[in-house]
Amino acid sequence: MKLRALAVAVALVLGGLTGVSLLSSSAYAADCPEGSLNDTYTNSLAECNIPTNAPGTDKTLMERAMVIINVVVGVVSVIAVAVIVVGAILFVTSTGEAAKTTRARNTIIYGVVGLVISLLAFAIVNFVTKAIFSGGGASSGSSSSSSSSSSSESGDD
Fold first, then answer.
1. For a Cys-Cys bond, which of 42, 51, 111, 148 suits 83, CB 3.0-4.6 Å?
2. pLDDT digits over 55-76, tens only?
3. Cα–Cα dist 6/19, whole Å
4. Contacts from 98-104 at CB under 8 Å and sequence distance 24+?
5. Helices then strands (H, E): number in the chain?
6. Whole-angstrom Cα distance, residue 47 to residue 62?
7. pLDDT: is 95 or 18 the higher one?
8. What does the pLDDT read at residue 2?
9. What pLDDT is attached to residue 52?
10. CA-CA distance, 42 to 59, in Å (whole number)?
11. What percent of the chain has pLDDT over 70?
12. CA-CA distance, 147 to 23, in Å (whole number)?
């Protein structure tokens, strides 16, 4: 019976997440005002004046992978919080029985460990991708300034 209640709780959480994601993603297109660069927009009115070839509109494979990883880590974090809540409910309803209290305590511990791991994964993924993207930009900027100084030196000779 408890397993059934846990399954129902998990199904409700996942159903809620699905509903929230469906509500947040816009499936409509509205008309832009006259004189805008685009005819319609889907998320906000600001899209009316974003050119179709604007920088940042085309995501690289690494950026798309980072978005997917962040979404997965976010879902895992939500599930970990749900496990912590279920463990707390089990702890409150254990009525002092040692076996139920131990099970509830273990559930909370596993939820906290899952949450910590997901937050660390999120931090590591973002740190590594920012280091890769900003590291490449910084080194190319310094090499271009050094190449321009070396070209001016070679012109003096």
1. 111
2. 556 667 777 788 888 889 889 9
3. 20
4. none
5. 3, 2
6. 24
7. 95
8. 72
9. 63
10. 18
11. 55
12. 51
Type of residue found at 153: E
Please give the DSSP secondary-structure letter assigned to residue 27. Answer: -
Give the Cα separation of 69 and 18 in Å (integer). 17
Distances (CA, A) of 42 to 17, 29, 56, 63, 68: 21, 5, 17, 21, 21
Q: What does the radius of gyration of the chain's CA atoms come to, in whole angstroms? A: 25
Helix (H, G, I), strand (E, B) or coil at 30: strand
Q: Which whole-number Å values give the CA distances from 32 to 28, 35, 50, 51, in the listed order?
A: 13, 8, 11, 13
Contact 6/87 with Cβ under 8 angstroms?
no
Q: What is the mean pLDDT of the chain?
A: 74
Candidates 46, 48, 47, 43; CA nearest to 28 is: 43
Contact indicator for 17, 75 with CB cutoff of 8 Å = yes
Euclidean distance between CA atoms 131 and 120, whole angstroms: 16
CA distances from 60 to 18, 57, 66, 73 (A): 26, 10, 10, 20
Residue whose tokens read 């005819």? 39
